[in-house]
Amino acid sequence: MVTTDLSISIDGFAAGPRQSAEKPFGDGKVDALIRWMFEDGEASAAELAGIGGAGSYIMGRNMFGPDRGSFDLSWTGWWGDTPPYGAPVFVLSHHERESFELAGGTSFTFVNGIRPAFDLAVAAAQAAGSDRVAIAGGATTVNQFLAAGLIDELRLHISPVVLGSGERLFDRVPSVDLEQVSSRATSLVTHQVYRVLR
Amino acid sequence: MVTTDLSISIDGFAAGPRQSAEKPFGDGKVDALIRWMFEDGEASAAELAGIGGAGSYIMGRNMFGPDRGSFDLSWTGWWGDTPPYGAPVFVLSHHERESFELAGGTSFTFVNGIRPAFDLAVAAAQAAGSDRVAIAGGATTVNQFLAAGLIDELRLHISPVVLGSGERLFDRVPSVDLEQVSSRATSLVTHQVYRVLR
């Protein structure tokens, strides 16, 4: 099963415009997007836990690090010495870079193209005895996988804010039928789980 | 209080592209947008009832009727002889047309500009002893009122479908802080109520 967890505004943005090393979520009211993760931890404990636990992960180039045209080899991601993934992470990138491993079982492997990344992630999850691959983000990467029909379950964490601009989930994704699997709200966020129908 | 009820897809569309007299909601999987109104009536009875009951209504030109460049005076709206509004309805239009009244207390008055329509609707609601004006739609009209800061409560009925194109809520609306007032889901729809913060 391929899942994705994405925190979005009610107008569908997962990040604001002008993302940078200093502002990984870009400009605007972007703190409101992930406020639930910090202020709502107990009420949303199940959803927070569900973001982890996959057998492998796939993420876009910008989610791994700020794009400076090529890789700064001293950059090992936003997450410090012990990233929370604890599993193989496949980073989509046109730039070549050697794989490396950090503490806690997280490795980063750089792959050009969503299909090769998908195949490697499925194999890595299976090798770890897991049936779940998580598309970690950002929205542009999720949109590519949605458009390719490669996502089974969308877990959207919808925050009460209109961002107005930025990186939008579903941008240029063709029409898709969904089944609403569950819906649960706290005062800060609504957690929606949708199954993608084929 | 100014409210709006809008049925939208998870990607924020309230209608598909190419709306016409034959297809008022346009092309695409638009039946999925309002399926909850017909198949989920009992489970969503409170939300359905809440769409009505305002002291007056404002709607866009396209919600009143298909745009043929001017008014076809034999056209009295999509709703037959006894429209469900039972209150004054103000239709935004650049074309002039005399007001008229239908059975059940619904009248249609044609007004050029959102501010004049807003003032007339507030006065009409007050005259009827109501404190509520409803922006009936479509999304383009709701967006104009949102951008002007004239909506207090957003009631979104989110259906499990990705439409991919059409008329989008929040299109060109600047950033807005919301408070999540309530959230309730049935198997077919999630009902979100947001208060607009100023």
Automatic annotation (TrEMBL), chains A, B:
<dbReference type="GO" id="GO:0008703">
    <property type="term" value="F:5-amino-6-(5-phosphoribosylamino)uracil reductase activity"/>
</dbReference>
<dbReference type="GO" id="GO:0009231">
    <property type="term" value="P:riboflavin biosynthetic process"/>
</dbReference>
<dbReference type="InterPro" id="IPR002734">
    <property type="entry name" value="RibDG_C"/>
</dbReference>
<dbReference type="Pfam" id="PF01872">
    <property type="entry name" value="RibD_C"/>
</dbReference>
<feature type="domain" description="Bacterial bifunctional deaminase-reductase C-terminal">
    <location>
        <begin position="2"/>
        <end position="186"/>
    </location>
</feature>
<dbReference type="InterPro" id="IPR024072">
    <property type="entry name" value="DHFR-like_dom_sf"/>
</dbReference>
<dbReference type="InterPro" id="IPR050765">
    <property type="entry name" value="Riboflavin_Biosynth_HTPR"/>
</dbReference>
<protein>
    <submittedName>
        <fullName>Dihydrofolate reductase</fullName>
    </submittedName>
</protein>
